[in-house]
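BUG: 3D viewer hangs when loading the predicted structure for this chain

Environment: internal workstation, default settings.
Expected: structure renders.
Actual: progress bar stalls at 90%.

Input used:
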Amino acid sequence: MPTSTLPGIARTVSVLGLGTAALGRPGYLNLGHGLDVDGVRDPAGLERRLHEVLDTAVTAGVTYVDTARSYGRGEEFVARWLQRRPATGAITVGSKWGYRYVADWQVDVDVHEVKDHSLGHLDHQWAETRTWLGDRVDLYQIHSATLDSGVLTDDAVLDRLAELRHDGVAIGLTTSGPGQADTIRAALEVRRGGDRLFDTVQATWNLLEPSAGPALAEAADAGLGVIVKEAVANGRLTARVPALAARLTDGVRHSADAVAIAAVLAQPWASVVLSGAATADQLVSNLGALDAADVDIDRLTDLAETPDEYWHRRSTLRWT
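Structure tokens produced before the viewer hung:
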């Protein structure tokens, strides 16, 4: 497995990481998620499934794991997996604060997460994160920072994050929505004590939504690590959308999801690309991206949608 570096983290990390959003809670915003979990909705069953996927990942050389306070019991599940495997010292763990999971372990509800970027919420969620993960938290990120949320101009929050950074935790932010580029560029200007506050940025970039690319290149040039999420566009760039899958796999021997992830790996600014696999088989298919470097990505640039169109379509996806 090729490796990369993330600022603020001493060890190297694998270029492919594993996100836990799909298995830390019973519902997820992804095409076919209900089929993926195959009726397994109880906490114990989802934890077993996540541990199976994590075992497959680490065997393949994956060393970066992404979770969040709003991923239901994701941090708890990851923590027990780390405790169960004695040789996990090489694993780097990133988590996030800013959303609160409110679905009460139900799938068919109107609201699954509530955003709160206040100082009080940061302190509360950091304490919860430390309860489960202790000193295994290498990177703590603002979950879905936007200009509208005001978190990038909240001095109290930024000062607190600077304190965590001083204590040895790398600090990052994640972005979503059509304004990702503006948020990333604003984050590059945030400083504390003369130093740039953020070590990493995690953003959506895929063949359907590449608009943040120039800003991510600027972030990388400025010394930030770049982590990419939603490389398969919540399942749209997989076999579950036959028309798009046919374009991705035309003339190649790789799966649609592997080609989609390979397109991200081909970006010179990408440090880590996350798989959101909900099954071990999905993860193995995603790992095929490592063998798809020969794919001609330029033939797929016309798949790009406008940011507004992409994010509108994403907002219509159902939690299943």
